[in-house]
Write a structure and sequence with these properties.
By secondary structure, the protein is an alpha+beta fold. The strands form two sheets. The protein has a four-stranded antiparallel sheet, with no helix packed on it. It has a two-stranded parallel sheet with strand order 1-4. The two termini are about 55 Å apart.
Length: about 425
Amino acid sequence: MNRVHTFFLSLFCLLQLSINLQGQTILTVDQVLSEVEKNNYDLQAARQNLETAKVLTSKYNQGYMPTLGLSAGLGYNLNGIKQVFNFNFPDIDIQNIQAGTANASINSSYLIYDGGQRKLTNEKNENNVDFAQLQIDNINQLLGFNASQVYYNIVQARYNIDLLKESLQISNERLKRAETYYQYGNQSKVDVLNAEVDVARDSLNLLSVENNIENLKWQLNQLILREDTDYQVDTSFTLMYQLATFDELRTQLLDNNTELIALEKNIELVQFDADIASKINGPQVLANGGYGLNFQKNSSISQIDLNRTNGLNLGLSANWNILDGGQRKLQEQLAVINQKTALIDLRTKENELTTQLNRLWNSYQNNVLTMQIEKQNIATNRVNFELVKTLYENGQQSSVEFRQAQLNLINAQSQYFIARTSAKLLEVELDYLLGK
């Protein structure tokens, strides 16, 4: 029963993998990055912020457009007058005096000069557009970094699938051989049971890795807004930084890192705040004009039947806030403090990223060196495995020694693939630091 259970478990694993692999499309890392850039909600929200920043640079928000207002009104009056005099003069008593009124006016004003605040504010709004674009680039790179990490973790798991399939095949062959030897009395029942246990373990390991791949695919789908996991990843990739130097990478980091560029842009924006604060109390000159029309029609009992006035007025006005109780001084001091804080943030981030780059570069070189060592180790273990396999088939080695040789070869292959994928993951992180 154990042999039957083991056989069907391993057969189920192989059939499941075969079914899963049939008809699946290859999803490349470039396609992943493209879908992230196109579909991700965080990027869509950041693009809306960019649109808002662009709207604020519109000519309608620059302060160069005149204002124009129109007002009008209609009215009806019903009044009465009664006047009693102290001297010999007839009293006046008039009731139900009706009158209709109408008025209309148009007014316009234009800010000619405001001490330079308008110009600086518009320049700041233009820089805010650049800052919003930097935020989009930073979010896009961060999402691409996260998606690439998940993608290459799937690649690593795919390597493990291939190794485990090979291991399961070897274990199945060993089980068949152990059963044959047992039938002819060349091995004990223990050898058969050990082989069955190894087949079951390899089968379960295969299922575990396959389940891990499925979970990683769903994790990747959250970033690219994909619903199905019916795809395979491209396991072929090359390492791009093996010939690079730390100094070259550090130069690229300081020139292209989006976080540093955003902090530098923030320093420029703070400088605009300082300049605007220095002009808060600058003189302002406004031009204004207007035209008004008033009309009143009275009843026949009034002394005046019709009253109409109209007039045009044009003028210039200027104001200069000479003393503001120290508000301008306060704003200037705050702007200077913000400038220093922004510069400190920039230098802190430069040191932090340089330290991170140094750590990544050292880890990258270690992984490249590990790849070279494990590649040689694979060759050595493969020769050893083939030798032990031959001795085992001739009855000169035990099943335990055969299994150990098998595990040594698998471990060397696994360590090589882990080092290679880890190096690629480090390159992904390096790309993110270098603003790629």
